[in-house]
Please model this.
Amino acid sequence: MIGDTAPLRSRWLPLLVLCAACPLRAQTDGNSDAVHKLLSDSSSIGLPAATEAPAFELKDQNGRARSLPSLAGPKGTILVFFRSADW
Amino acid sequence: MYCRGQLVKLQNDLPILQRAGYGLAAISYDSAAVLHEFASRKNITFPLLADHESEVIRTFAVTNQAYAKGALLDVNSEQITNALGDVPVYGVAYPSVFVIDPSGKIVWRFVSEADELRLTGTAILERAFSSIADASRLQLPSGRIQVVSTASNTDVGLGNRLIIGLELKIPSGFHIYGPSVGHDYHGLSWKMDPSSCWYENDFAYPQPQLKQFSFQVEELPVYVGSLRLTRELVLKPVLSATQPSLYQLFEKLCLDKEARVKASGRLNFQACDDRRCYPPQSIAVEWKFHFVPPDSKRSPPELRREFEH
Model:
């Protein structure tokens, strides 16, 4: 009897682990189209490449006014829009 | 929450971006006071720009249109934590990246409607310019063909978009067959193991060249010299207002004892010279990233955005 339990457990364990992962998998797995869409560039939103970047002047975290030329390195600027540093 | 993680990763990548010749700045609808408090807390040295009226966000056409005036963040549909409280979100930007050349022209852009998913700095360089800025390189034991595994980052947070790569050095006089070579040969293949922890983006092999061999009527697709394969991995953004247990499950299933997330797969190929082919090889490939837990600390209440009236 005791000898029987070990193989039984080892047979069931992978199944248990598999089911434990289900909620994580369910997020968008299984449908590669959905994943593809989720990860793609939303090309209809935002200024397209090859257009002129609009000029701007904004205050940075230290209250200093910054414009695009003041941010650029020799090859240019990487400008990242993010949602919020608060929430 | 995902933003704070992205900004910290950008700060980590800042020396690489600067060495590559780029200035870095990040814009949001936050006030300068919110940005100052966050930058001080996390030692952010690159400019965080306060577009409190969302004017620049609007001129770059990246305003999140889902939020009308007076709208509050819907934490359930956004799938982020309920602990946030009410957040006014009118005028908030979609996570996006613009690379602007010194003449002021936009040369590359990426806008994501998936609010939780964010590019790291090195992944921006890789995606925009195929510029190799690997944070880690590891030589794999692989015989005649030298194989190095690479990654754009050494650590990862929820929703981070990373690039992993494999570099093959094929010695002079040797070739390996392309993936489309057919069943008579062992073509190159790189497959990742299924994982509940990552999203995996589409992957394409570089175009092989066609070569004529004396033993075959048709030309065959081959790679010679150096070859670099890359693909994108995205750590699932598992913070969920409707399923708070998802994060615990993620910690249990995706993190090892040293709080690292693993991604693994196999690289298969066969090295040949003009006279003979050597036994096909199947190499286990693996990447491990230190996990950076989400930063759930909000700005002090007195600095937070006021509700529109």
Q: What stands out?
A: The mean pLDDT of chain B is 93. Residues 270 and 280 of chain B are 4 Å apart (CA to CA). Chain B has six helices and 18 strands.
